[in-house]
Amino acid sequence: MSEPTSIQQFDEERADGYDDRIRRIAPGYDVLHGLLSSVMAATLGDEAHLLVVGAGTGAEIAAMGEVQPGWRFTAVDPSPEMLARCRERMAGTDLDGRVEYVCERVEDLSSGRTFDGATSIFVSHFLQTREAKEQYVESIARRLRSGAPFVFADLYDPEDEADQLWAAWQEWFARVGASDEEVERTFSKMEDEISFVLEEELNQILQATGFAECTRVYQSFLWGAWWTQRG
Ligand SMILES: C[S@@+](CC[C@H](N)C(=O)[O-])C[C@H]1O[C@@H](n2cnc3c(N)ncnc32)[C@H](O)[C@@H]1O
To answer: Which of 91, 112, 140, 217 is most buried, taking the most CB atoms under 10 A from its CB?
Structure first.
């Protein structure tokens, strides 16, 4: 399997500050996770096994698992530090026994299991090329049963509104406490590291890899989330 173009390293330092930092930079983060849980509940029964790609510190597993006691999860993430935070979060809750942890990229996942649904929250915008994005999404598609729901969220390019939303987002970040220097550093890093693609291109990638056209279920500045289904 070829290496993807630009995968972010979620090391110890980044993992430690993640839960706080993501809530400051992604307004509505907890709403998004609650909402994805409802989208999944509307399409799945009481028993299901979900593939959580880029599970990170476990926010989506907590959101879905707390309201769906019959669901099981496979948490896939190549960062040992992020998966360690995920395990800590589940420890002592009934969720711990319902989660399998796999420290790998989804592209390399060795499990032969077919899943009932999948999520990918804030992962593929780090992949820089169309080829890497297609390889990533295809590796999720081939592990899902026909009709399985897939909810994904990423930074994207909302085209005509992008400049105004970018400015408004910076204003929001300053309002929740970021200094001028932090705003400048954070947003110029995002310009360098994030691949913002149009919704039309997201749809092309989905359809090229076996998914139906997507429906946007969430937007907050340049963050979007979509629901689709495996064909
Ligand atoms: C920004 S975090 C998102 C964490 C979590 N999904 C959330 O909603 O907060 C992105 C995570 O994706 C993981 N990741 C990056 N490339 C991946 C890949 N190819 N397969 C699976 N996970 C990946 C990173 O290690 C990191 O933990």
So the answer is: 140
Please give the CATH superfamily to which domain 12-158+194-229 belongs: Vaccinia Virus protein VP39 (3.40.50.150)
What is the rounded average pLDDT of the residues 191-198? Answer: 95
With a 6 Å cutoff on the Cβ, whether 81 touches ligand 1 is: no
Q: Are strands 99-102 and 215-220 parallel, antiparallel or unpaired?
A: unpaired
Residue nearest to ligand 1 atom 20, measured at CA: 105
Ligand 1 centroid to Cα of residue 87, in Å, is 15
What is the C-alpha to C-alpha distance for residues 224 and 123, in angstroms, rounded to an integer? 12
Q: pLDDT tens digits for 203-230?
A: 999 999 999 999 999 999 999 999 999 9
Residue 212 is encoded by which pair of tokens?
A: 């139906």
Span from the CA of 122 to the centroid of ligand 1 (angstroms): 7
CA end-to-end distance (rounded Å), the chain: 24
Q: Are the C-beta atoms of residues 71 and 65 closer than 8 Å to each other? A: yes
Specify the residue with its C-alpha closest to ligand 1, atom 23: 54
Dump pLDDT digits (tens) for 133-163. 999 999 999 999 999 999 999 999 999 999 9
Ligand 1 atom at minimal distance to the Cα of residue 33: 8
Ligand 1 center to 54 CA (angstroms) = 3
pLDDT at 4 over 70: no
